[in-house]
Amino acid sequence: MGKSLVVARVGRNSLHRFWVDPGKPRNWDLCLCPFQEIAPQTDLDCTVTKVIPGPKWTGLRQLLNEWQGWRDYDYVWLPDDDILASQDSIGAMFDAARALDFQLFAPALHEASHYAHYVAMRNQRFFARRVGFVEIMIPAFSRAALDRLLPTLDQSTTGWGWGLDSLWPKLLDHRGLGIIDAVPVVHTRAVGQFRDADLGRRVLEESDRILETNGCGQRMVTFAGIGPDLRELPLDPDRLLVELVQGWQYLFDRNPQALRWIVEQQAPVFTESSYPVAGCPTSPC
Questions:
Q1: How high is the pLDDT of residue 271?
Q2: Which branch of life, at top level (predicted)?
């Protein structure tokens, strides 16, 4: 069994305390990287680094470059601090990713979550999916993938990281990307809201620049579904689309446009010549 690590940017109101059952054994370690002074965490069995002010990816970029301890782990999860998850679900996420050899992955977002991208939401028909996009909110990495992608954090001068989640799949040749539907977490805050209008403008401009400079875009596509036996399901593109639509039926009541988005995004799967190779494309982003 390999070693797994959660590294979280946290503040006084972060939800990381809900992730841990004090006194109960767990199969992953926790490192807190605070952006402000926090109370002692003596009951959590975790490491707390020095305070690094600023946005999430500003702090993580500094920490991961200065501290090499993360390289002792096979997998590293970098969630936002407003994620509600359990100790067991986090452990199950790592176990599933290891069994499926995912390199860049995330737990699905629970049906009750605030969300920006439907592909990140739990699909009720699958245990997991091979996908073309893993959102910046809750990405997890194999050690090799994180080592490969760490320099890209320099491209986000705002520290918000928008756009990097479109670049990462391209750099990994769209291989080994997954969303684990069987272990959803809840995103508790509304997305895409900025108190500072100028900051919002700069974050969006930075995202556009990252996509343009690197010649990539968002691929909100599912290439294959995986069952509870951890085997890729033998679905042709038509049947895969049907299963996806059925598994996301709950989304349509909240946003009927989601059905059209799903159909449009799945269209490349019908012509992707390399789709049969482990369910992963080789064409550029």
A1: 76
A2: Bacteria
